[in-house]
From TrEMBL:
<dbReference type="InterPro" id="IPR011250">
    <property type="entry name" value="OMP/PagP_B-barrel"/>
</dbReference>
<dbReference type="Pfam" id="PF03922">
    <property type="entry name" value="OmpW"/>
</dbReference>
<feature type="region of interest" description="Disordered">
    <location>
        <begin position="30"/>
        <end position="56"/>
    </location>
</feature>
<dbReference type="GO" id="GO:0009279">
    <property type="term" value="C:cell outer membrane"/>
</dbReference>
<dbReference type="InterPro" id="IPR005618">
    <property type="entry name" value="OMPW"/>
</dbReference>
<protein>
    <submittedName>
        <fullName>Uncharacterized protein</fullName>
    </submittedName>
</protein>
<feature type="compositionally biased region" description="Low complexity">
    <location>
        <begin position="33"/>
        <end position="47"/>
    </location>
</feature>
<dbReference type="GO" id="GO:0055085">
    <property type="term" value="P:transmembrane transport"/>
</dbReference>
Length: 331
């Protein structure tokens, strides 16, 4: 053992001397010797090679943001009330003495009772942007869409008129989702609650409606604020791509205001068919029809050339079921 120690003592100094001699010769020759000599920092760095990185560096940054495009279909639960006169009836029995003979028992010629509408379903394209607040909660805004277009048909007393109007609408909606399952799970169901704003525009009356009201008719519909409930399921196709199916129910209420200008009626006006007997017989009887034309002309002359401007209102609850089918991209 003592022999082994003696050998080591002789060898190690010899190696140190050799290294010092080599470095001294390189220094005299003008060479850089700093890279040759190991330093504590170099030693620690070399010792650290192959060691696992800190735990914080092992976590990939999650793609919290997402965007979706897809198709949206609306099935309306339309509950429309009857049309109501706001500015009063177009004619009253007191406007002309002949009216008492043509329409005994009828005090006024306003909108016939039971006149309402049926708003039809619609579908369109939409786009949304959202962000996961954590692994389970996300917020999504349905901010882009091709306007929904709804056909509006007469119902009740005016059902025979067919289509009476069209209207377009945009329904931006903000939804708070609660997702279930792990964040990186391929399939994730969700529930949500949302705030909807429905904006109606480009409402137009058809010739059938304008013939019924007796003149050019403009329609305006109030925007609607309402809550919505949603249930959905998301399926991941890749790390970034997914598809999602969502069903919802949204509360939508609106009031349509119809303003008819330059109003004129005649013995052949369609609206006369919806008044009680014997008024509904006026269009089919030549004598009564001519008498009606004459008295309306006289009343219009007293009012300045026509019967005036009249406003009517219709309150509706649309409350659609919503179907959203979309493809999403996470980033």
């Amino acid at each position: 053992m003592w022999c082994a120690l003696m050998v080591c003592a002789q060898v190690l100094p010899a190696q140190a001397t050799t290294n010092e001699s080599v470095m001294h010769r390189r220094w005299q020759a003008g060479e850089d010797t700093s890279a040759t000599a190991p330093t504590p920092a170099t030693t620690l760095a070399q010792a650290g090679e192959g060691s696992p990185p800190a735990s914080g560096l092992q976590i990939d940054k999650k793609r919290r943001w997402f965007a979706r495009v897809g198709v949206s279909a609306l099935k309306l639960n339309d509950k429309s009330e009857n049309v109501e006169d706001v500015t009063g009836p177009v004619l009253r029995s007191s406007d002309h003495p002949v009216l008492r003979f043509l329409a005994p028992g009828v005090e006024s010629f306003g909108t016939p009772e039971g006149a309402t509408v049926d708003v039809k379903n619609s579908a369109s394209l939409f786009g949304s942007v959202g962000k996961f607040l954590d692994d389970h909660w996300a917020i999504e805004g349905l901010v882009l869409a091709v306007p929904f277009k709804h056909d509006i048909y007469g119902k009740g007393t005016i059902e025979r008129l067919g289509k009476v109007a069209t209207v377009k609408q945009l329904p931006p909606t903000l939804i708070l989702h609660r997702y279930f399952g792990e964040y990186n799970a391929r399939f994730r169901p969700s529930l949500g609650i949302g705030l909807n704003y429905t904006y109606f525009f480009d409402a137009e009356a058809t010739p059938a409606l304008e013939s019924y009201t007796g003149g050019p008719t403009k329609i305006k519909m109030k925007p609607s604020w309402g809550l919505g409930l949603f249930a959905g399921a998301q399926y991941a196709l890749t790390e970034r791509l997914h598809i999602k199916l969502t069903l919802g129910y949204v509360r939508v209420r609106t009031t349509a205001t119809m303003t008819t200008t330059n109003t004129m009626l005649s013995g052949s006006s369609p609206v006369l068919h919806d008044y009680p007997y014997p008024v509904n017989q006026i269009p089919t009887d030549p004598t009564s029809r001519q008498a009606m034309d004459n008295l309306v002309g006289q009343v219009a002359a007293k009012r300045g050339g026509d019967l005036g401007t009249y406003e009517r209102e219709l309150k509706s609850e649309l409350n659609p079921y919503v179907l959203l089918m979309s493809v999403g991209y996470s980033f």
